[in-house]
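User: I'm putting together a teaching handout on how multi-component assemblies are represented. Below are the sequence lines for each component of a complex, exactly as they appear in our records. Could you produce the 3D structure of the whole assembly as structure tokens, so the students can see both representations side by side? Please keep the chain order the same as the input.
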Amino acid sequence: MPPSTETLTAERILEATEEVLRRHGPAKATVVDVARALGVSHGSVYRHFRTKAALRAAVTKRWLDRTSQTLSAIAADATRAPQTRLRDWLAALFEAKRRKADDDPELFATYMVLTGETGDVVDEHLADLTGQLTRIIEAGVASGAFTAPDPRAAARAVFHATGRFHDPGYHRVWQRQGVEDDFTAVVDLLLRGLRAPS
Amino acid sequence: MPPSTETLTAERILEATEEVLRRHGPAKATVVDVARALGVSHGSVYRHFRTKAALRAAVTKRWLDRTSQTLSAIAADATRAPQTRLRDWLAALFEAKRRKADDDPELFATYMVLTGETGDVVDEHLADLTGQLTRIIEAGVASGAFTAPDPRAAARAVFHATGRFHDPGYHRVWQRQGVEDDFTAVVDLLLRGLRAPS
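Assistant: Of course. Below is the structure of the complete assembly, with chains in the same order as your input.
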């Protein structure tokens, strides 16, 4: 690619990195490949990301953030009843992960490798997601729809109990006939567990 | 090993197969290794198990059955209240899987490979376990402790919702600090979901 006249931003580097990862796979992709794709020196890339590990962590965070951002709008949507909001949020999480796995299996496999090596980034992502769930459950407690002495603990339990429908390790299960029904059955049971006694 | 004078039973072959798998790993273990360990010809092994695949499936089934048998006693124990029975059963499942992973990591890794190649055996095992769960939930519905219009579907949901605590793919999580609390939080939530309205 010819040298670009656009300013070299972190975002442009991350876009190029994702493309390089998609093309070469996580084992072979190098900072030099990224620099070449952008038509800049590898030193220019290192001015934005000090190490290859930092670059890989940043591109992984960007990929994970795409999911969290979509979901945060649902978590904050006070026009939906908390039960609906919880159900919609879990369905959107499942759908987002499944779409990533289906639409671009190579990139999904790549990010499964990257998330394995960037523990901190994944931990922050999970904390972000359970934080969103906590706010939905708190809203339900405030409105009297849910009973949860510790909304944060309840959010964690809901997140763990629905792992089959968002943990990338289950991506093969997501293709199976009936997985939607399985999802609904688990969510129904969890919502009954959260429901305030009438 | 010298030729044995004991009768060559399927059980003896399976014992030897497990030992060979433990020693050589799933990729390298052969029927000839098993025959040699028993001091018999490989033809004698093939009289009991017609193919290498059949032998691997049988040894996997035996390994999985060890878990189901322990659990079936709890599922059938009418002296425990259904809520206690459900909790004890899930705790025993978690404990059995965790013990297998901790006590003999090589054999556990071997069986993770074998379960990946013997889909039918695994499906039967999962059907057996959810069948046991169904009977516990039916007992709870009969006693008035649980509400579940479809106990089989509820059992499936409980099994899926607790995957983090029995699916071998999570074996690394089982070592973490706090995993017991996570387990208890999920089970508490599920039990509240099953509880009949008072």
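A couple of points students might notice: Chain B touches chain A at residues 153-154, 156-158, 160-164, 169-170, 182, 185-186, 188-194, 197-198 (CB under 8 Å). Residues 119-143 of chain B form the longest helix (25 residues).
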